[in-house]
Amino acid sequence: MGKIIIQIAEVIYKFVALNILWLIFFLVGLGIFGFMPSTVALFSIVRDWLRGDLDTSLFSRYLKYYKGEFVRSNILGVLFMILFYIIYVNFSFVSYYYDESIQIYIYIIIAGFGTILLMTFVNLFSVIAHFEYKIFQYIKVAAGLVFLKPINTLFQLIWLVAYFIIAINHPTIFVVIGVSVFAFVLMSINYSTFKKLGAV
Fold first, then answer.
1. Is-contact 163 173, C-beta < 8 A?
2. How many helices (H) and strands (E) does the chain have?
3. 139-162 burial: b if 16+ Cβ within 10 Å, else e
4. Is residue 65 helix, strand or coil?
5. Does residue 107 contact residue 91 with C-beta atoms inside 8 Å?
6. Which phi and psi (to 5°) does residue 101 adopt?
7. Rounded CA gap, 128 and 183, in Å?
8. In this structure, what DSSP letter does residue 99 have?
9. Which domain holds residue 66?
């Protein structure tokens, strides 16, 4: 019984430590430049855990991933910011450019593209953490995952919605689970796909 309690405590410690590291490196990058590399580093650590690598120094490994992906991840982040902005602009101007009778259909189409873009962005972190590609290849593979396993995409979307509901309505629980548990679920889903494709 005592051994089980110790193991549970160690798991909790690792997830909490990972949350703290994510926040520190997010702030080191002044927020806007820290989000992408810090999140990629977090997913990379989770990927290592899923592969059974649990013993390496957490801080040194996190720093290595953060520095290694700083430029590339921020370039991808800017590209997605532009794409999200395009979706937002199109959504905002529907009522000005389309007849009221077809606006609902236009909204549905834009929302569909927006959801695909969102899930591609979510997959992006797993893809960067696991593969070594050129910039646009990451986007291609991340988008491919959305359509390759629709059930997995649905699970990820449900988890994404649930996560934000918890964050908004139960901030105390959110502080405990933080971004590390969020990333662990998403990376686990994609890692299972990578294994089935023989990419592990």
1. no
2. 8, 0
3. bebbbebbeebeebbeebeeebee
4. helix
5. yes
6. -70, -20
7. 13
8. -
9. 2-196
Contact assessment for residue 128 and residue 73, using Cβ atoms and an 8 Å cutoff: yes
Q: Which two tokens stand for residue 71?
A: 């430029």
Q: How many domains does the chain have?
A: 1
Q: What is the pLDDT along the chain (200 residues), one digit of tens a residue?
A: 667 777 777 777 888 888 888 888 889 877 788 899 999 999 999 998 888 876 667 888 899 999 988 999 999 999 999 999 999 998 888 877 777 778 888 889 999 999 999 999 999 999 999 888 888 999 999 999 999 888 999 999 999 998 888 888 877 767 666 788 889 999 999 998 888 877 66
Q: What are phi and psi of 98, to 5 degrees?
A: -125, 145
